[in-house]
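EI: anyone free to look at a 137-residue chain?
SC: sure, send it
EI:
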Amino acid sequence: MSNHVHFIIAAPRANANLNVLVSNGKRFIAYGIVGRLKKSHRDGIIAELSGTVKPGDKKRGKLHQVFEPSFDARLIYNEKMLIQKIDYIHHNPVSGRWSLVRDFVFYPHSSAAFYELNKPCMFPVVHYSEILHGEQC
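SC: here you go
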């Protein structure tokens, strides 16, 4: 997606702090994005990301604002809801205004091909059954 991302995060520890997990993840991803932009000499985009840093954040050493400071989280209560959320995420690139690919399983930045075609993704994916039931898929 060009302006947002969906994740399903499993936090096996009861004391895991979602805010810390997400903020650390966003920071790590932002460093990667900025690094790739610099490597490919995308100076205009780098300047844009630098220009949106708030003065207080600049004083604390922040150089780029890649993500919105907030995030929208939903607690998943059961397997049915989990499957519904996975289905929504997989179909998002072909729904409404996006139409990024003809068939949702071919969107490269998705786990859809992993679930639907049993094909590896460009990133590591753990099947939800392994987390919920300890089943090896």
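EI: Residues 18-39 form the longest helix (22 residues).
SC: 👍
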